Predict the 3D structure of the following.
Amino acid sequence: MSRCTYIPLSKSVEEAEELRMKEHRASFTIDCLQRRLLAERMESRAALAEVDRLQKR
C-alpha cells in the first residue's frame, strides 16, 4: 500500500525525510496491528468451532 506524504515547500530536506520516516513507521505499526488482530480473530473462531464441536458430542 503506497501512500504519498504532502510536504510543504518550506520544509527542509531533513524535515521532509524525517516526515517520511515517521509515516513509514506509523504505516508499519498499523500493518503489524492489523495482522495481530486478524490472527486473534482466527484464534477466536477456531476456539468457538472447538466449543461447538465439543458441545455436539
About this structure: The first helix runs from residue 13 to 55. The chain is about 75% helix and 0% strand. The chain has a mean pLDDT of 87.
